[in-house]
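Figure S4 source data
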Amino acid sequence: MVGSARCTFGFRGVPAGFTLLFSSLYFGAFRNCFTMSNPMISIGPRVRKSSFFDATRRAGCKAYSVYNHMYMPLYYESPEADFWRLVEHVSLWDVAVERQVEITGPDAAQFTQYLTPRNLDQCSVGQCKYVLLTDENGGIINDPVLLKLAEDRFWLSLADSDVLLWAKGLAVQGKWDVEITEPDVSPLQVQGPKSTDLMRMLTGDWIDGLKYFWFRETDIDGMPVIVSRTGWSSERGYEIFLRDSRHGDRLWDMIMEAGQPLQIGPGAPSAIRRIEAGMMSYGADMTLATNPFEVGLGRLVDLEMANDFCGKAALTTIRDRGTSRQLCGLEIDGPPLANEHPWPVFSSNQQVGTVTSAVYSPRLEKNIALAILDNEHAEIGQELKTSTPDGRLACTVTQYPFYDPKKKLAAA
């Protein structure tokens, strides 16, 4: 191992977008956390490192995951301490693993629309859109944030999957006149209730007028960036897309220094906060085996638009036929927990679903989870059981999001 950083295997449960692997070390207070074997991942040259990687090591990152073929920080002080800093102050995240797929060329707009079932006709230059990418069967390939830089230039800011290869394959097959690349772009996220105060120090007063899910091209002390009013925390926040990786250390240090009066600290996408918010993690809560209607994202599918998109025929059939399962919220009894693997959910002795992501919320003082359940067992208030390493625990179907359901904090 290099230095003291630890890399651990685990479940995809944090996100981005966005999607992260979760560690069995995630909650140091768990009863079994240090009695289990915790395999290590050695840090080496094969897995890519972000332009902020050295800065995260200096900042004391205690665990990394591998995400989009890169190392991604999981937590610093502790997952719970990082959570409280995020929701009370301001937190700086290295999310350079959130790779950009850039689509340019004469067919860029038409091809980008072909990738997603969300209607992009009203998307303006300077605007971001949360979109789904679907395959020919209607399965979900990824759930990126789309940025429209020009009428013929788009970025897909990715969760964890090889969308670059998928997009290239579709473009070649369809003979689209586009160029598809991964540009030199390294995102940071500045998240938390004090994030606007910090961004004002870095960019000036114009930041106050930046609307939710819009962005602006600018620079910070000569470093070329795009700043967007987005993030994966469900708190007020911003993303800074650094467009020259040589400046990674300087940008990180500048933000950390500016944020000292605001009690800034390093952090990473918080599994606690994202599950509180009902934010899905690709690879855990949605995969190629799920379609948008099953996970409550039918609003992102426009089957009536004139434009074609990949999976349109399949999704039309799914909509007309209906689905047999749906994403639900659960509260789980017992001691604080987090899942490394999906857990089966039972009614009596019949499996009726799967817990996809679970975590203990210190703010809500309960275990909360997302689960895919058969429709007949998805009614709010229904009592079920889930099989965990501590045995079968009682759980109850409940509303989700569990906290700030209207996302007033993020959009304020």
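Figure S5 source data
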Amino acid sequence: MDTETNFLTERIKELERENSILREQQVEINKAKELYLKIFEEFPALIWRSRLDKLCDYFNKTWLEFTGRTMEQEFGNGWAEGVHPDDFDFCLRTYVTAFDKKEAFLMEYRMKNKFGEYRWIRDFGRPFHDLDNSFIGYIGSCYDITENKNNELRLIELNATKDKFFSIIAHDLKTPFNSIIGFSEHLIEEVKEKNYDKIVEVARIILQSSNRAMDLLANLMTWSQLESGRMPFNPEHFDIANIISEVTSLLKVVAEQKHIHVENKISPNTQVFADKEMVSTVLRNLISNAMKFTQTGGIIKFSSVNEKNELIVTITDNGVGISKERIDKLFTISESSSTLGTQKEKGTGLGLILCKEFIEKNKGEIWIESSLGDGSTFNFSLPTVNENM
């Protein structure tokens, strides 16, 4: 009996030692978990964790500070309320597909921050395992990559700009000069033959080609200054009706050639607050564009409307009009291209892009209303007062 009692006593002591070790190990495990949670809480990345049912049950302090929401609001699928609607399906599909395969994933999407702004997020998700290596869900870390994304988009724009620039130099600028050289040689022959009727016709073609080359060079120089940040910006109060008259006078030869009637209904001394040179460039391009696509004998009208602290200028023609598909591409450098006018006039598609950039630089907007065969209406707005005063 004593032997059995001794055995039981020793066994109890052994179990107590094992329990003590287990308790110490559990304490260490709990401390480790607390340490990891503390690290997660203070970690600069946005950390999330999900369970086996794919629902999220943890977001760190950095995440909650970024979104401005509580743990309860983000819990489960609540976090998805902040994902941009255009990115939601892709985001969910990537997450569910990886989860079902227990594979790591990397995705980028836009998520709303506490200021209501959508920021680009790069999300790294990985399978999460317990100490016994059993799969218990996913853990992810997110980083705000908005600045990188903006730089990528800017690089795409710059590449498109470069490609467009070389396209203009290689083709559009070469064409009018070839025309000028070719017809100048032809003009010499006609002068020798004293064929005066032919001389007038050839001289007119040379003048048209020269004007086109000059317009193109002016736009290229302006565009170059704008892209390099060297263009001065000097907003002031001025009479836009007077600027329209000046620009129209410069294009008088084209209007007379096509018998286009220009009607200016904008009252004298209609003031705007903007950079006069930029607005002059906008008007030159828009008026030239209207004349280009208006048939012989057509009409171009100018009008304006005052709305609070801005003036909306409208240029309407009864020309060939623009399709809905083309309207969406007119102001995009990578998509723009030239369309022949009613008398086969050529352009580069650069003018309207300059118009958009200049109007927006002056805190205005530009938009088009048109359909094929029904003419076009170009509208742009400009401030009438100096908002900084």
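The chain has three domains: 2-149, 156-231, 234-389. Residues 2-149 form a domain with the Beta-Lactamase fold (CATH 3.30.450.20).
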